[in-house]
Amino acid sequence: MSAQTDFRDRQFLAVIGDEDSVTGLLLAGIGHVTPPPDNQKNFLVVDNKTDNAAIEAAFDKFSTERKDIAIILINQHVADRIRHRIDTYTAAFPTVLEIPSKDHPYDPEKDSVLRRIRRLFGE
């Protein structure tokens, strides 16, 4: 597959996060459900009862199975729960962006993208 077609069909955002973050983004219009029979959603609401395997499964689905996802937004505190998967993810598409949540402030030291940039510049 050429680089041109790698991103051409990617038109949706996906979000993995707490209820407030997902709700806000859905209200902003990012929600999408694929046609039947699979009816796949492009979001996952995570709470303290959600197990890490479910978060990893959603991340894998959005990052490898779904070819229509361009950007994966994930709350940083949720990304911490699957940090080993986030840190080893290297594909350009979909791009993974860590975002803050209402109850958990953003820590740039944990952000995998910023850490990669620092390594590139030798910091």
Helix and strand arrangement:
Elements: H1 3-8, E1 12-17, H2 19-27, E2 43-45, H3 52-65, E3 69-75, H4 76-81, H5 83-88, E4 95-99, H6 112-120
Please describe what this structure looks like.
- The structure is a single chain.
- α2 links the parallel β1 (12-17) and β2 (43-45).
- The protein is globular.
- 41% of the residues lie in helices and 17% in strands.
- The chain is an alpha/beta fold.
- It has one domain: ATPase, V1 complex, subunit F (Rossmann fold, 3-Layer(aba) Sandwich).
- It has a four-stranded parallel β-sheet with strand order 2-1-3-4, with helices on both faces.
- It contains six helices and four strands.
- The longest helix is centred in the middle third of the chain and has 14 residues, at 52-65.
- Belongs to the V-ATPase F subunit family.
- Pfam families: ATP-synt_F (PF01990).
- Its main location: membrane.
- Keywords: Hydrogen ion transport, Ion transport, Membrane, Transport, Vacuole.
- It is found in: Vacuole membrane.
Summary?
The protein is of the alpha/beta class and about 120 residues long. It is about 40% helix and about 15% strand. It is found in: Vacuole membrane.
Low-confidence stretches: none
SS-based structural class? alpha/beta
Into which percent range does the helicity of residues fall?
40-55%
Radius of gyration: 15 Å
N-to-C span: 35 Å
CATH topology description = Rossmann fold
| Approximate shape | globular
Strand order of the largest sheet: 2-1-3-4
How many domains in all? 1
CATH architecture descriptor name? 3-Layer(aba) Sandwich
How many distinct helices? 6
**Biggest sheet statistics:** 4 strands, parallel
Strand content: 15-25%
CATH classification class? Alpha Beta
Report mean pLDDT, rounded to a whole number: 88
The number of E-state strands comes to: 4
Per CATH, the superfamily is ATPase, V1 complex, subunit F
